[in-house]
What does this fold into?
Amino acid sequence: MFKAVGKKAFMKLMDSLSKGYEIAAPRKFSNKGVFYSAITDAGDIYLGAEFTVEPVKKLFLMPSEWLFENRFNDGKISLQGGVPPQEARKRIIIGVRPCEARGLELLDKVFCSDFKDSSYSKNRERSIIVGLACSKPDKTCFCTSLGSSPAETRGMDAIIFAGEESDEMMLEIITDKAREIFAPLEDAACEEHRKKLESEKKKIKDPVRKINIPDALSASFESGYWKEVSSPCVSCGVCTYLCPTCHCFDLVDEERKRLRCYDGCCFKDFTQQASGENPRPTKRERYRQRVFHKFDYFRKNFGEHLCVGCGRCIRHCPMKIDISEIAANAPKNK
Amino acid sequence: MLKELKAISKELLKTKRVDVILAYKRASDGVSAMPCFIFEEKDIDKMILDSYCVYNLSNYIKDFPDKKIGIVAKACDIKSIIVLLQENQLKRADVVIMGIECHGVIDEKRLCPGERPVQDIGFNEKCRSCKSPLPAFCDYLLKEEEERGKTGRASEGDGYASIRKLEAKSPAERLKFWEEEFSRCIRCYACRQVCPLCYCPKCVADQTDLAWFSRASNLKGNMSWNVVRAIHMAGRCVACGECERACPVGIPLMELNKKIEKDVKELFGYEAGADAEQKPLFTCFDKKDPEDFVK
Amino acid sequence: MTDFEPKIVAFLCNWCSYAGADLAGTSRMEYPSNVTIIRVPCSGRMNPIFVLKCLMNGSDGVLISGCHTGDCHYSEGNFYARRRFAVLKSFLGYLGIDPRRFQMSWVSASEGDKWAKLIHELVAEIKEAGPNKMGKE
It folds into this structure.
């Protein structure tokens, strides 16, 4: 089911919904980029072609989060969960790209299956995902090689097709949750609109690059290839933090509180053991681990590659390292 | 310039004067540059040299601790090599510096998706305050054959205009500005990893068994991290701009580091990376150092 | 605001300033009790990260006090400190942190009266600056 709505009417609805719901959407900060922000004024919502720097993952698996705090009162120790208390309000997240929604589905396999991570699951339950189809895929995008596409709707409650020049946008409603929220929006849809929606979908260029991820990376494990391709890497962590699917974390105790914060296999200390040993002492081992986790181990464990082809790691890598090319060119044997 | 550079590099590898050459090659998108490491003469043809060569290759010197290194370096990159020499991180005989004439490198940050508008990409902010296209300290000096039309250098100003603008604001405005910037920090430590002068085996930020400051990416933790790093760079930062370029969330790190650079110049007449014989800033003092702030 | 009692941390060098503060005490000079003293061997031992940690964790003010230049027990420690903290002082101001919150002084072992006067002034200035909101998350 879809509606053709005026952008102004959409923003007005968002403003009225913000009283009952938490609203998060991309917002453009001049010179800095586009970031997911808490929206108090719907006029701040950015639905243009530029991609957010950080993926929507950061609204579910937070960059840093207090898990619990211990108190010592009257000779008794008590644990208080979630400092500060976690938001209970329902949340509407607008502007989620298909690759990012796919990323959430992959994260669900880790945080929301046999074991439900309490804060991640709560965030998933309370969120309604309104996606945004990509009108201008980037040169770094390769989502079509990994089971997604610029107009894919998996993982979304609704999806928006918003042309930059037009005052109108197409809103395709997928789940009942979305139907309920967008009920107040008048539907101006007609045959002309239906045709327009189809042509909008067709207009979206397929990302230029098709990458063939090899089926069996493991044969190349000992190859000198990994030393060569990892040498420009500076182990900075940007690719990991900005990846919609990377999810490794560190647990640190600080002043009676336990903190969970992002961590990455690219950091030297990631596998530092208390004995002093480090099984991944150089970039070669660490970069190889990153490629293997994404394109070998995760599929062996969960059935799919741990990558959605969003291109953030390539776009923001300070050294322009391209993991898609590196994986595609991995030698067939040692 | 590239032909000469390749010839010199070939010779350096052939005579085993160096074990590896740190240079630039074309990235997989066919437009940008990327760092590359050449161990054999047959790979010399990978080298490129153009305005996309923004990276400070001296960051990789720490990856080759016992090797002799040949490095392709712009004037700004050479300043960080000089600081490494001052701090005994490198022996002079173990590095061969191939200095290249540079009129500016391109800032590819924050490109819009879709087509890459080449003519809209401007020069990197750091190039505006560059003193000279020719490096002064090097083993080989490679000059351009032809006159270059465009330059990234600003014709006037000392490069501190934006610092002065911030200094002129009220303390409350400044605090608001920095709190807003630091609130976006995600503690990825890219600024530290791309810096040639951040070479501590265990960074203060990673010392968690008794932590100096929080690892949480809240305002308190982020401010602590960025301020500590700026202080650790005092008198050492050569304003190569890599930290600001690498920051994924666009924090204006050069506004932090250059403020200290300006202060250090005004208070002590000291400039980082100017002279390899000079001692590091905080290992020396002058009996006449200013003390008006001391009661 | 009148109830606000600032919490101030003071790093004193063992040979001059600590002795000077001690002299103020033995001479029964009265001065505000808002200052917690940490003894260091020399002002040259001081690391800017100590000052930063205090301010980030809620101290309303930090003071470093050492020997007068030329009188350092270790000859030169205070010269190094002077350079280091000139940079920190200017930088903290640039970040928007009230400059009154970080101060430095030279107090010799015989200057008990200077110490008492210094603390009176320091506490008054920090009271005016108000509570440090930084450490309160």
In short: The CA atoms of residues 1 and 145 of chain B lie 7 Å apart.
